[in-house]
Amino acid sequence: MATSPAPDQLIAIRRDTIVALVRRDGPDLSARQLGVFLTCYLDDGAHTVRGLAAELHVSKPAITRALDRLGELDLARRKVDPLDRRSVLVQRTLKGSGFLRDLRTIMTEAATTTRKGAAPTEPSASARKAPATSGSD
Fold first, then answer.
1. Which of 36, 41, 74, 135 has its CA 20 to 30 A from that of 47?
2. Which residues neighbour 47 within 8 Å (Cβ) at sequence distance 6 or greater?
3. What is the pTM (predicted TM-score) of this model?
């Protein structure tokens, strides 16, 4: 049976992950932008600006600003809901899926390093590069 990591280990994994994200080529995401991104990619179902604001307990303008940045980076895109044209849906992109895959790799490496009790190492080549700019879903 696997044991849960101690709080200090979780903090170390988070720190090492953030440091690796900052060191890599490509843009940095703020905590809010990363929170919106992860909510859209990890939670199933349709996501709207209104729904994200309610779920994350922030204002709709804060979600809009985060989505503006994610859109600039092609990590997410907005689309008017065809069933309710007043509502805006958030869509995943191919580049966003690549970023999530890279993030998983970075976190796995950080967790492995933390479990071994070793000092964090340079991120792997795949973790250092920004996701490829290719077409979207």
1. 135
2. 39, 40, 89, 90
3. 0.79
